[in-house]
Write a structure and sequence with these properties.
The chain is an alpha+beta fold and about 300 residues long. It has eleven helices and ten strands.
């Protein structure tokens, strides 16, 4: 079934904005709102396939998603469940006469379903969700409507995967920054171009530097000019790709002599590419080794 100008324009407008939304739920809400209003549909839902096989109402239009989330949607149960099971789009004009229609939402909400179109959201042959619309106000849904949501569904799937990747990246970055911030030791990472790519708060305090935002991106040789032993250790590890175990040195920081304990580790990607060097260090100026036990104490 070929799409007409109306459906092509709607598809273009939805796709134009879809991939600029990086929150999975916000993106789904936008898609449902645009298409529901354009198709004059009373309601719509995007379900996300969960690991246990249930269908989670990610976003909704015309009905409360909070109420929908109180219900259980499963593959193989109801029209949406049929779409999930067989991964095929469907158009139902008289739900009350269709054996696939379960009517759970109607019974729980008082909503009267008169017609349905639904399509699977598939990425790389994997079902990741369902997109569904109910009750076209000016009559029944037509086949171009079904073709439209099938095409949108494919793009929604890609956008959902992209949103998840971005969220995982952001979560990992937040976790990494939390770990760095909680370290008792200073952490400074120099990339392959000799620039500082990471530095935690403790490192800034020990070295008496400014703030993280002003240091990241700066040349390590310039920033650490007062700490030549540390700079030399970084350079050596960058060349030979070998870690340096615990070393000690004395450097002058803001007019005082500081005893620094440090070690270096090469940062290497899984494919063997050298990404830089990480320097871990502590100010041990005030550290005192434990006193040796006397002969009497040993006895």
């Amino acid at each position: 079934m070929k799409l007409g100008i109306f459906h092509f324009e709607l598809l273009y407008n939805v796709l134009q904005d879809m991939h600029f939304l990086y929150n999975e739920e916000e993106m789904a809400e936008m898609v449902l709102t645009r298409i529901s209003q354009a198709l004059n549909a009373e309601a719509g839902t995007i379900f996300r396939t969960e690991k246990d096989g249930t269908l989670y109402p990610l976003a909704s239009y015309g009905v409360s998603k909070e109420n929908l989330r109180k219900l259980t949607f499963k593959s193989g149960v109801g029209v949406v469940g049929w779409v999930a099971q067989y991964m095929q789009p469907v158009k139902v004009d008289r739900p009350e006469t269709d054996p696939r229609f379960f009517g759970t939402v109607d019974s729980a909400s008082g909503f009267k379903t008169r017609c349905i179109i639904a399509s699977p959201i598939i990425v790389r042959n994997e079902l990741i969700g369902i997109i569904e619309f109910l009750n076209r106000r000016d009559g029944m849904f037509v086949l171009p409507d079904l073709e439209l949501i099938s095409m949108v569904g494919r793009q929604v799937g890609i956008a959902m995967i992209n949103a998840r990747v971005i969220k995982e990246r952001d979560d990992l970055l937040a976790f990494s920054e939390a770990v760095q911030g909680s370290l008792a030791a200073g952490l400074l990472v120099v990339d392959g171009q000799g620039k500082i790519s990471k530095i935690n708060r403790r490192a800034i305090d020990i070295l008496g530097l400014g703030n993280t935002s002003s240091i990241c991106g700066e040349n390590a040789a310039t920033t650490l000019i007062f700490a030549l032993p540390l700079l030399k250790a970084i350079e050596e590890t960058a060349v030979n790709s070998q870690p340096q175990t615990r070393q000690e040195t004395t450097i002058r920081i803001q007019g005082r002599e500081a005893r620094i304990g440090y070690s270096t580790v090469p940062v290497i990607a899984k494919n063997g590419e050298k990404l830089g060097v990480a320097l871990l260090f502590q100010d041990i100026s005030l550290w005192q080794p434990p006193a040796a036990k006397s002969t009497d104490e040993k006895n």
